[in-house]
TrEMBL record:
Taxonomy of the source species: Bacteria, Bacillati, Bacillota, Bacilli, Bacillales
Superkingdom of origin organism: Bacteria
Domain Integrase catalytic: 1-83
Segment forming the signal sequence: none
Coiled coil regions, renumbered to chain: none
Native species: Alicyclobacillus macrosporangiidus
Protein name, per record: Integrase catalytic domain-containing protein
PANTHER family with a match to the protein in the record: TRANSPOSASE, TRANSPOSASE RV3428C-RELATED
GO terms, biological process: DNA integration
């Protein structure tokens, strides 16, 4: 998908086929506007700050590191302690 920021979006044909098959119409958010897509922007920022970039030897090594990170990433921390 390419979004020019002025309302014109070039959707991938395969994605449009997918959307038509499942009966929804995709809607693009404005580029660089995190307020319009906060539900996805927050987790991406968290991943970037707490996991990525990492050093890895190959895809298997990266997948192993991601699996370990996911265990700790899903732990909720509050003012009392860890749950």
């Amino acid at each position: 998908m390419a979004n020019d920021g002025h309302g014109h979006v070039d959707w991938q044909p395969a994605y449009m086929d997918f959307a038509q098959y499942y009966g929804f119409l995709p809607k693009a958010c404005k580029p660089y506007r995190s307020r319009t897509k906060g539900k996805i922007e927050r987790p991406i920022g968290y991943i970037r700050s707490s996991f990525w970039p990492v050093s890895f030897a190959d895809l298997d090594d990266l997948n192993r590191q991601a699996a370990v990170w996911r265990v700790f990433a899903n732990v909720k921390v509050d003012h009392v302690g860890v749950h």
